[in-house]
# Entry
Amino acid sequence: MSSKQGNIGVTSENIFPIIKKFLYSDHEIFLRELVSNAVDATQKLKTLSSVGEFKGELGDLTVQVKFDDKTITISDRGIGMTAEEIDKYINQIAFSGAEEFVEKYKNDAASIIGHFGLGFYSSFMVSKKVEIVTKSYKEGAVPMKWSCDGTPEYSLEETTKEDRGTDIILYIDDENKDFLNKDKINGLLTKYCRFLPVPIAFGKKQEWKDGKYVDTDEDNVINDTKPAWVRKPADMTDEDYKKFYRDLYPMTDEPLFWIHLNVDYPFNLTGILYFPRIKSNIDLHRNKIQLYCNQVFVTDSVEGIVPEFLTLLHGVLDSPDIPLNVSRSYLQSDRNVKKISNHITKKVADSLTDIFKNNREEYEKKWDDLKVFIQYGMLTDEKFAERANPIVLLKDTDGKYFTLEEYENLVKVNQTDKDNHIVYLYATDVQEQYTYIQAAKDKGYDVLVMDGQLDTHFINHIEQKNADHKFLRVDSDVIDKLIPKNETKETDWSEAEQEEMKDVFNAQLPKEGGMYVVNFEALGETADPVLITRSEFMRRMKEMAAMNPGMGFYGAMDDQFTLVVNTDHKLVKNILADEQKEMAAKLEPIDFEIKENEGKKTEIDELNKGKKEDEIPQVDKDRKKEYDDKINGLRKQKQELLQEYGKGNQVVGQLIDLALLANGLLKGEALNKFVKRSVELIK
# Structure
């Protein structure tokens, strides 16, 4: 056979435009496909040698990748091809109903490549011409050269080639000249071919000589042919796992621990999943798991293959049961993928359970880093939640760890309220909420630390699963009302006294940074004179809104605080007594006038008792409105006088600022004023 011309066997002449057009978004994969083909050819030769069908010397099997200013060449010393094999595997794109195929898959590049073995033809996405120079391993084989310019027409002719194997020569088109770049090619090889099972060489290693880098005689092999996940776990040391992690994720802290996957039934799956060490709540990056198919890189977007919560993990998964080109629609429907996802969930849960049972001390040490993964899993995956429930830990302010069951048993006697709710008290900042924590401890209560990014959502999850459980932050109310055992003591202040003192305290409450309301409680002589609480519901909603855009309504609302004034405290009693003494002369005439006008209003109401609105004389309506206006004006006058008094009362200002300071709410100018006032009061 000297030469041959012909047409590639397709039933549609549009196959090449389709490849160019619809695969263009993934055009960089041409190098992966061609190098993978070279590796396959090499692997096949090794197999033939092992069974005795090839009796020659294998020699150096390194796949070579080279380039110049016009071409990229991928060379192997694998099985090569005869003219007949070229005709079969290259010239015949063997599928029936090409037109139906084109119509069905024209919008899905992944399906075109993955389902129909068109990997080789991805070369035409970047090339104006492709040549194949090949020589079969078979004795007496004639070297052949195949050439095609991206149309169905090709040429096939005999050529010269000393060694077995195949050279694929790509003549890169003008639009893709950027691929004729050393760094670009090296980046693609590192990305896609880093762990292929046959050595891949790209150029030569370099050394520094005479003030510059020069090539050596040694091949620059870019891949590790035996990565950690293909080795047996029994052959791996902890240092081996850590080294592999460092290779995958340089400049990253050492992982907490890892899970080595090795499944051969009912599907094939190998890999290593690492639990990364998270320094802060922000340090959460998805898509760190790399997916491989027979050591060929596929993607680092693994949603649909692993459960959502495990996308927080790092590592590698390798499965021949997942095609090289994974489409989202494929992932959503493929049974093997679902099985793999379920298995990974189970494997992770089982591994965590084993660590918990066998080395609880070590598990507790790592819990603060682990909990974000486990909580996320329980919030998003019902099956994982069931498996992980016995190994979820709660940590209290003393640094002790408990399972959910252990903690319930610890607190249910002392922390069950009068409505039969087991109340779980927690703090989000141990230092900032120290006063409230101590008040709870003085009552014999235990306080949890819930300072994680997902803790608010996790609290809601537990409450939904357990109707008799209630979580309250220690500063959400006064201690006696957090876990009410019976009717609490009421203040002996009259309603009028409370109303007057509200105005006094309101005078010095912050006007920015949130909404404040004043309440009066009888907390006992030894309790703080003034303290600030924050509504559990509103605070929790705002925290969840910060992570959930759909809850923007709550996020836009002001923070809501309650200033609780302890009417039993000596200092507060003194403020009331001083106000009554100082303001009596000014307020008594106003109170008298208010009472007088309210009496006149009552008289009118009595006269018109039982009448419908339209039966009441207009003169009575006008007189009543006149009295209302007078009363409102007098009350405003009274309020202004009380606020003026309040502004000038240093003790009131000091008590409010102390409460704000205890909650981290006293800042800037207000803090400066507090310091100066403190100095004045000490003098």
